[in-house]
Amino acid sequence: MRLKFVVLSIYFVISFSLATKVRAQVVENPDSLEQIEFEEEDEIEESTEFDSIVVNTDDKYWDFVRPRNFMFDTSFAPANLFYNGWDTITINPYRRDLRNMADTVKLILANYDDCSFHPPAIGDITSNFGFRRWGRRQKFHFGTDIRMEVGDPVYAAFEGVVRIAKRSADYGYVVVIRHNNGLETLYAHFSQLLAYPGQPVKGGNIIGLAGSTGRSTGPHLHFEVRFQGEKIDPASIIHFPSGSLLNDTFQIDKGCFKHLYEVKSAKLKATTPKYVKARKGDTIQKIANRYGLSPKKVSRLNGINSKTKLKSGRRIRLR
């Protein structure tokens, strides 16, 4: 009996020591158990045929918005007629130049089935699509800014699926939704995200709370409308004072992207000097190519044939 008591005492002493050691390790590294759990989740996601969605555990909204072990089958991505691939990281992965698009595309923006519309936010317009002064220079603004208070709800404009929900250096907390109607919309400067990549949304679903994250001078929503990555003036689709669509359909052609010529021209003007001095062996054509200009236009400005060799040091006008 006495021997049995001694054995039991030794067993309890060893058990208590081991338990104390484990508790001490957890106190030293309280995130160790949580880290193991997330590593297991990552292994499960990487072994599937679906797009794995990288979860940043610093973004607390994931904890209560995104379902555990969520996976999105990219074959269910909307508007596959207009888009190839499903990128949850790059805002514009398409790299299309639509300035000279030959075709005209007619989109059904709203109907009673799967294209309901809701204004993205309620508030006054503080900045429209187009050139505006940014410090000492002109900068093209590719969206519509709506004044909001921090914490105000922001809504999905149409039905679709969230493609991006992340933090960006310029946009701050940003959401991009690809819609059933073929458009993509971008919402920027959230204080908090309430959406996750692969999440189906309807027009009017809350996707985040307004804020001033990223490159922002005050609380507002920066809202963009895009087709195949290129921006379209939101005011050509939405009448913001009333919060309604201008039309239930929208026609996309090269005229929607004529502003890109203005942007390119402004960039060239900002980076191209008005006059330069010719180098040895230069021609108008060589100088024009050096600055990305039209040789014909530079020839006309200077009254010289584009292939004529120029004397070194001759002053040539570029614009």
Give a structural overview.
The longest helix is centred in the first third of the chain and has 27 residues, at 2-28. The chain folds into 3 domains: 2-65, no CATH class; 74-263, Distorted Sandwich (Glucose Permease (Domain IIA)), CATH 2.70.70.10; 272-317, Roll (Membrane-bound Lytic Murein Transglycosylase D, Chain A). The chain contains 6 helices and 19 strands. The protein is elongated. Strand 3 (130-134) and strand 4 form a beta hairpin. Strands 2, 5, 7, 8, 9, 11, 13 and 14 form an 8-stranded antiparallel beta sheet that branches. Strands 6-12-10 form a 3-stranded antiparallel beta sheet, with no helix packed on it. It has a two-stranded antiparallel ribbon with strand order 1-17. The protein is of the alpha+beta class. Helix 5 packs across helix 6 (295-302). The protein has helices at residues 2-28, 32-46, 61-65, 259-271, 284-290, 295-302; strands at 105-108, 125-127, 130-134, 137-141, 144-147, 153-155, 160-168, 172-179, 184-190, 192-193, 200-201, 206-209, 220-227, 230-232, 238-239, 244-245, 249-252, 275-277, 315-317. Helix content is 24%, strand content 25%.
Helix content: 10-25%
Q: How many structural units, i.e. domains?
A: 3
Average pLDDT: 79
Number of strands: 19
The CATH architecture category of the largest domain equals Distorted Sandwich
